[in-house]
Amino acid sequence: MSDYRIAILPGDGTGREVALEARKILDTISQNTNIGFEITEIACGGQNYQQTGEEWAEGSFEFCRDEADAIFLGAIGHPGAYLPNGDLAGGSVILGLRSGLDLYANVRPVKLFDGVMHKVHGKFRQIWEPEMVDMTILRENTEGLYHSLLKRASNRAQGMPEYAIPDVEFPDLKGEVVYDPRPISSHGTERLVKMGFEICQTRSGAPLDGTSRVSCIDKSNVTRGCQLFRRTFDSVANNYPNIATDYGYIDAFTQWLTRTPEHYDVVVTSNMFGDIATDLASVLQGGMGMAGSGNIGDDHAFFEPVHGSAPKYAGMNKVNPIASVNSIQMMMDWLGRKHGNTEILDVANTIEQSVSAHLSEGKQLTYDLGGDASCSLVGDLIAQRLAKSLSEQ
Ligand code: IPM
Ligand code: MG
Question: Where does the pLDDT of residue 131 fall: very low under 50, low under 70, confident under 90, or very high at 90 and above?
Fold first, then answer.
């Protein structure tokens, strides 16, 4: 019996609903395998801040750092919930964990499952076959344009004094001037790019031609930080002679991503570019309701659906729980590799098969995929499929 401690942070809005479905998957695993999960729920986020005056209870960051083997986060963000300093309330949770636990890679798989329509042309017109969209985007997660916001959040999460941005003057600018530094380091880039190449080795190449390829997406024609990012990419790439590389500027990439997604296998990019590009990329996989992610470092990780709190759907039991189920799938894959536990790796595969079977049957889908099933019903049906497959193994 292997036991793992999992922290569940439901957060705000629909994050709370999908966290229930994530938990359903974890419970299904413990009921049908030798793997046990000890689950601790931690209330947090902007709504929690408005109600209690705290983003999360004291000691929560330390629990995630020192006690939890893995973390699931629903979503952070509540309309009007900002801290007195202007930062997003709940930022201590999502950004504090990213920076405070040094989770340097935000890993966002973009895969179009059989039975799901991508959303490029209007509502439900299909252009690509599912097998043409299967890539993983790695977004740098600790520096870049988010750096000062991340530092403020992680200092707050750890009870440290507010992080101060270094003073820089812009005497040529007029009126009020606000400045978000965008530092990019060779260390931060190197470890991100290395993880990209390592992930590439576990995949079967780009859908187009099966070529294993890592694409470096930057804006190195104009920014110094991106020039360093690309130079560092090249030096890491030298250690992987069997993996092809290519390059794109972020602006042009947004066209290629939507025109020829089949070209891409693994993509590495900086923080803000990755934030924007992965929302766009989710359109290729049927929308945000399908997009799971992992915030991954060397020792810790948290997993979250990319869709955010979606306040207008909150409390309606309506949103697609599959992004969260896919995030739990990633959690199992990460835990399995970290602990050399093949049973958990098998569970990760079985979750993927259960999601895939549910989607290709195409019967009970949430509104975003053209159906009218509820969030909890889809969660139930996938959990039932998972239970059946696990109990037969
Ligand atoms: C994401 C979100 C976050 C980000 C917000 C909620 C701080 O958009 O995970 O992509 O900007 O990184
Ligand atoms: Mg985002």
Answer: confident
